[in-house]
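Problem 12. The chain below contains 312 residues. Write out its predicted structure in token notation.
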Amino acid sequence: MSVVDHNAIELAPRISEADVADYFALLKPRVMSLVVFTALVGLVIAPGHVHPVLAITALLCIAVGAGASGALNMALEGDIDALMSRTANRPIPRGRITSPEAMAFGMTLAFFSVLTLGILVNWIAGSLLAFTIFFYVVVYTMWLKRRTAQNIVIGGAAGSLPPVVAWAAATGSLSVEPLLLFLIIFFWTPPHFWALALFRSDDYARAGVPMLPVVAGPDATRLQILLYTIVLVAVAAAPWPLGYFDAIYGIASLILGAGMLALAINVYRRRARAESLRATRKLFAFSILYLFALFATLALEVAFRAIAPTIW
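Solution.
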């Protein structure tokens, strides 16, 4: 009869159950798609000509950098994710991937995305990408997320930088236009995520995350959503009268802004639980459409101007 060495079994390295889908989930692909799209618009509106290979390289590096941020975020927040119904099915809470594995994966992606962008494109873009990853992982995830209700306001700067990185990749410099895109995303982030936090407030409370609805209550959150939406609509429309973007974008920003503002007002007014949940879900869903449509309009305006220069 053989003798089982239980100590050896306990000390044996765990065999990872992860597959490609699990590692792909670490990249937060839905967030990555928004990052890549806003970066693409930053490339499109940049002056001059960018070689297609360099443009594709820049977008791939930005995408991989965003994925690295997502993986590192999940590696650091496995305990929180396990307590929230929205995130409990992620690879780390399910035991498919360990936090050290996710950390190693994220660090590898971060290193090579920054190095590749710096060497093959330029180091201004590479440095900005490195700062974006650092800000999201260290400033937002490690410092702000668990400490302040303003986590998403300050931390939103990381998600606002991709078009700036892309502009720098195309031009090797910075200018007013990408900073305007930065401000649009920056002021879009609080109403977008606070709408989510309102109908997921039980999740955040259970996980001990001090999101605004948990700390200040739903009424204060509704007011903040409305105030930030008013600022967002003004900031998004401002580039048109300032002469940075043209009429197609300006009119679209006003139409989309009116829709965003109407839904924010509806969230502010609806206080009964069932009505409030419906209102916040509508605002959250429309906010994603708002940002995609606004940036798509800007890209189409630039493309139309290139095709029909005599009209402009």
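Discussion. The longest helix spans residues 273-307. Students who got a different answer should revisit the alignment rule from Section 12.3.
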